Amino acid sequence: MSSNNTWRPATKLIHGGTTRSQFGETSEALYLTQGFLYDSAEAAEARFKGEEDGYIYSRYGNPTVSMFEERMCIMEGAEDARATASGMAAVAAAIACQAKAGDHVVAAKALFGSCRWIIEKLMPQYGVEFSLVDGKNIDAWKAAVRSNTTIFFLESPTNPTLELVDIKAVADLAHENDAVLIVDNVFATPMYQRPIELGADVVMYSTTKHIDGQGRCLGGIILGTEEWINDNLHEYFRHTGPSMSPFSAWNFLKGLETLPLRVSQQTSNAGKIADFLAEQNSVNRMIYPGHKSHPQAELAARQMSGGSTMVAFEVTGGKSGAFKFINALETIQISNNLGDAKSLITHPATTTHKNLSEDDREELGISDGMIRLSVGLEDADDLLEDIQKALTSIS
Ligand SMILES: *Cc1c(COP(=O)(O)O)cnc(C)c1O
User: Of 5, 247, 299, 363, whose CA is between 20 and 30 Å from 329?
Assistant: First the structure.
C-alpha cells in the first residue's frame, strides 16, 4: 500500500492507501463483490484460520473499503480503522463494542441528536449508565466521573451552536480514570482538528458530510489503536455487520482527494458570511469558531487549525423571524444535511433538535430564532447577496 510518512495532508489524501490491480489503473478500483475465491480447500482453511492473508467476505473487509480505511488512518495518524455504513453505525459500534452492563458513560450534553439517543435511550436497555454534562466546563466532566466510568464521548465543535470542548483536558481526565475518550470529529473535519494528537483514543466521522462533500453516499468510520480495535471492535464489527458498501468507499476515496480544497474554500466563504452576520441589526447572536467574538476563541486557536464550514446565528423575531428568513432565501437551500458543496440551511429547534425538551434546548442555546448554515462552494458574493436580501424580509 502507498504511504509515505513525510507526505503533507493534501498528498496523503490523494495517494495514501492506494493498492492497484494487475491492470495498473490510475483511479482506485471499485471491487463491487461480496465474496472472494480460494485456490483450494486448504487455502480457504488457512485464510479462515488467519494463517494466510486475504479477504474472506465483504462484511469483514473489502479491497476498496480497505483503501479508504488506510487513507483515513494515514491522514488521522491512527493505527487502524473500520469503515461503516453511516455515521450513526460508527457511533453505535464505537460505544456498544466496549460498553458492558454496569459501565458508566460521561458525555457532553450538546451532541448530535441520534448520539444522545444512543447514550440516553439505547445503552441503558443493556444496563449502561450515563451522565450528560456541560461540555465546556471541565469541572462538570470531573464531577460526573464514577468508579465505573469507562467511556467519555464528545463532539467539538458541537451541533448546532458550535461550542468547543477542550479535548486534551477531557482526554487527560479519561486516562486518569482508565477510561476511553471517543471524539466525534465531524464538524471540525480531518483538516482542522487532530483528536488523536490531543489524546483521544477513538475518533469517528460521519463520512456522509465533508468527506463525501457532494451529498451522495452515507458512511462512517471509526479510527483507533490496533489494540483497541482488536480487543473491542474487531469481533463486534464482523458479527453485527455495520460494514460500508464498496461503492460508498470508492466514492469517499474520490471525496478525500478534494477534501482540503473544498474545506478551505467553504471555510473562507463561511468566514465572510460570519463577518457579515456579526454586523447585522436583525441578527442577535452570531457563533463562528474562527471569529474573535467566539466565547472560546482562545481554545479554538489552541486546538483547531481552521475556523469552520458552519455558521450558527439567531435572528430577531424568534421562530417567525427565522422562518421568514429561511423561506426568503433563493440560492441557499433548506436541508438538515451539512458539509455539502451546496449551501444548506436548517432551523434546529423544529428539525434536528425537535426531540429535545424545551428546557434542554434553552440550556443548549438552541433558541427559536437560531439558524444553522452549512456553507457550500458557491461564490461567496452570491451567498452574501442571498442572505442580505432574506434578512430584509424579517423586519
Ligand atoms: C451527521 C452526523 C452524525 C451521523 O452521521 P450519519 O452519516 O448521518 O449517520 C453523527 N455525528 C455528527 C456530528 C453528525 O453531523
Answer: 363
CA neighbor of 136 nearest in space, from 185, 174, 169: 169
Task: Name the CATH topology of 9-255.
Answer: Aspartate Aminotransferase; domain 2 (3.40.640)
pLDDT averaged per 10 residues in sequence order, the chain, 395 residues: 80 96 97 97 96 96 98 97 98 98 97 94 98 97 98 96 97 98 97 97 98 98 98 98 98 98 98 98 96 95 95 97 98 97 97 91 94 98 98 90
pLDDT for residue 2: 64
> What's the Cα-to-Cα distance from 232 to each of 93, 116, 235, 313, rounded to whole Å?
10, 22, 7, 40
pLDDT for res 1? 57
- Residue 300 to residues 109, 166, 186, 251, 259, Cα–Cα distance (Å): 19, 9, 15, 31, 21
Domain with CATH 3.90.1150.10 in the chain: 259-392
112 close to ligand 1 (CB < 6 Angstrom): yes
Burial of 275 (0-12, 13-18, 19+ CB in 10 A): middle
The closest-lying atom of ligand 1 relative to the alpha carbon of residue 91 is 10
Residues 104, 110, 115: CA angle, nearest 5 degrees: 60
Gap between the Cα atoms of 253 and 340, Å rounded: 16
Q: How far apart are CA 130 and CA 148, in angstroms?
A: 10
**Entry pTM:** 0.97
What 3-state class would DSSP assign to 178?
coil
Q: Among positive and negative, which fits the CA dihedral 123, 124, 128, 129?
A: positive
CB 343 within 8 A of CB 301: no
**Ligand 1 pocket check for 242: Cβ under 6 Å:** no
Q: Is the CB of 374 under 6 A from ligand 1?
A: no
Where are the domain boundaries for CATH 3.40.640.10 in the chain?
9-255
In this structure, which topology does domain 259-392 adopt according to CATH? Aspartate Aminotransferase, domain 1 (3.90.1150)
CA of 310 relative to ligand 1 center, distance in Å = 14
